Amino acid sequence: MSTVYLNGDFLPKEEAFISPDDRGFLLGDGLYEVTPFYEGVPFGFDEHLARLVRGLRWMRIDFDTSGLEAMHRELLARNGLDTAERALVYLQITRGAAPRTHYFPEGDVTPTVYAYAKAWSRPSDERWNRGFTAATVPDRRWSRVDIKSICLLPNAIGFQDAKERGADDAILVRDGVAIEGAHQNFWAVFGGTAVTHPKTNHILPGITRDIVLDEARRAGVAVEERPIQLEELTLADEAFFTGTTGEVRPVVEIDGRPVGNGRVGDVTRRLSDLFLARVEATKATAVAGAAMTQAE
User: Fold this and answer.
1) Which terminus of the chain is more exposed, N or C, with fewer CB under 10 A?
2) pLDDT tens digits, residue range 23-38?
3) What is the pLDDT confidence band of residue 233, given thresholds at 50, 70 and 90?
């Protein structure tokens, strides 16, 4: 029986209930974040928190985030995941329960805060090395994709369309541009340069995306932030996604056609290695910090 967090309490999932008047349930009026932990060490927590705070401010949801890291750690511990090789915490904050209106409720409304923890795993080396497939689908999302809203119906429909075509992932296309995946950022490699869509209101500013860009620049791997035209995909040497649990996820086939030679490419492998090295360095720093604290 898993333990979840709801509005200040840790309780069995089976005992967690929200009001039928909750605006997240009725209107999708809320935000979410998914933060990974490696052997109990949070990865990119500050960046996830900053994105959440930015979304809360934009949506005008008044919520104090100062206790969230402690809550994440407690939730992992209560589920026996505080030393798990890989775990995540899903956090969702809605405006709260109030009579249904299309405008914000009048008076004070307490936000609904829900979180759960679970383990996750990478694909096996054999599966990763085979690569994954993707299908292009229309991007039907709203114009503020940079806000990590819980309104994910267009993403779900796009992913389902891709699945029904036999693909592992979806690439969302808007106005002839391969924007991003249904739940990950998308990249293509041309002549050794890894290209991904720039930050605009039409993509989610991915934490993994930013880390990969940072590591690539430090290592001298050529990167470029620009729109990728749909017709360019036939010319790509490599392609991959980046995301919290996908990490760096290679794509070897798009719409039934091989990407490049149809195998995981050198740039994708290099960026994956750099990302995983960043994870290991973060873990090592955390362990050293904990040892120093104990010594004091």
Assistant:
1) C
2) 999 999 999 999 999 9
3) very high
Q: How many CB atoms lie within 10 A of CB 229?
A: 13
- Give pLDDT tens digits for 236-276: 999 999 999 999 999 999 999 999 999 999 999 999 999 99
**Distance between CA 29 and CA 97 in Å, rounded?**
10
State the amino acid at position 95 in one-letter form: R
Tokens of 271: 């960026």
**Angle (CA) 222 228 231, round 5°:** 125
Cα–Cα dist 6/144, whole Å: 27
Separation between Cα atoms, residue 290 and residue 285, nearest integer Å: 9
3-state helix, strand, coil in the chain (%, to 5): 35, 30, 35
Do 3-119 and 125-280 agree at the fold level? no
Considering the domain 3-119 in this protein, what is its CATH number?
3.30.470.10
d(CA 241, CA 248): 6
- Cβ(227)–Cβ(291) under 8 Å? no
Per-residue pLDDT of 120-156, as tens digits, reads 999 999 999 999 999 999 999 999 999 999 999 999 9
148 is catalytic: yes
Q: CATH assignment of 125-280?
A: 3.20.10.10
Q: In angstroms, what CA-CA distances link 210 with 44, 196, 241, 288?
A: 10, 11, 12, 25
- Domain positions in the chain are 3-119, 125-280
Task: Please identify which of the residues 148, 163, 199, 283 carries the catalytic annotation.
Answer: 148
Q: Which of 162, 173, 147, 170 is nearest to 229 (CA)?
A: 173
Q: Which two tokens stand for residue 19?
A: 């009001």
User: From CA 48, how far away is CA 38, in angstroms rounded?
Assistant: 15
Indicate the residue type of 45. Answer: F
Whole-prediction pTM: 0.95
Tell me the C-alpha to C-alpha distance, in Å, between residue 41 and each of 81, 83, 132, 160: 11, 8, 28, 33
